[in-house]
Amino acid sequence: NTKCSKDYSVNELWQMEKFYLLYPDQFPEEFRDLSWNQLKILINIFSKEKRKFYTDICLKYHCDDNTLKNYILNDVFEKYIFLRDEKKENCQDLLDKVIKFDTLIFE
User: Fold this and answer.
1) How far apart are CA 73 and CA 69, in angstroms?
2) Which residues pair with 18 in a beta bridge?
3) How confident is the model at residue 10 (pLDDT cuts 50, 70, 90)?
4) Phi then psi for 3, rounded to 5 degrees?
5) Which of 34, 43, 20, 16 is nearest to 8 (CA)?
6) How confident is the model at residue 28 (pLDDT cuts 50, 70, 90)?
7) What is the radius of gyration, based on Cα positions, of the chain?
8) Which of 95, 93, 70, 71 shows the shortest CA–CA distance to 81?
9) Are 57 and 76 in contact, with CB atoms under 8 Å apart?
10) Which long-range contacts (CB under 8 A, 24 or more apart) does 55-58 make?
11) What number is the average pLDDT over the span 94-101?
């Protein structure tokens, strides 16, 4: 891992640039309560809708980095969209069900 300075690797600088390119005008307010590790995971999600979904999950359920990764790897967003479209349920109730179900799987 090559270092560009005392503190940042090339990869870290690249991630900072990627973040800046996604949000050039202003640091999103909702990101203030997320860790840099969570932000690094989120900036690798191409879809804005999907990235917003996982950001909201992190904030609402206080996910740590590993839980966030597990949700992404287990397609929680896709499950949520599928169930939302199929069942036409209240979105918040449905999200709680999907998160609860996936949390049980991880434990």
Assistant:
1) 6
2) none
3) confident
4) -100, 135
5) 16
6) confident
7) 16
8) 95
9) yes
10) 55/30, 55/31, 56/30, 57/95, 57/99, 58/34
11) 71
Distance CA 46, CA 99 (A): 22
Cβ 9 vs Cβ 2: under 8 Å: yes
Nearest of 38, 37, 40, 35 to residue 18 by alpha carbon: 40
Task: Enumerate residues 6+ apart whose C-beta is below 8 A from 105.
Answer: 74
Q: Quick one: DSSP state of residue 23? A: S
Cβ atoms of 71 and 63 closer than 8 Å: yes
Sorted by sequence, the CB contacts under 8 Å of residue 4 that are 6+ apart come out as 10, 13
- Apex 99 CA angle, 51 and 67, nearest 5: 65
Question: In the chain, pLDDT over 70 holds for what percent of residues?
Answer: 80
Residue linked to tokens 């690798």? 44
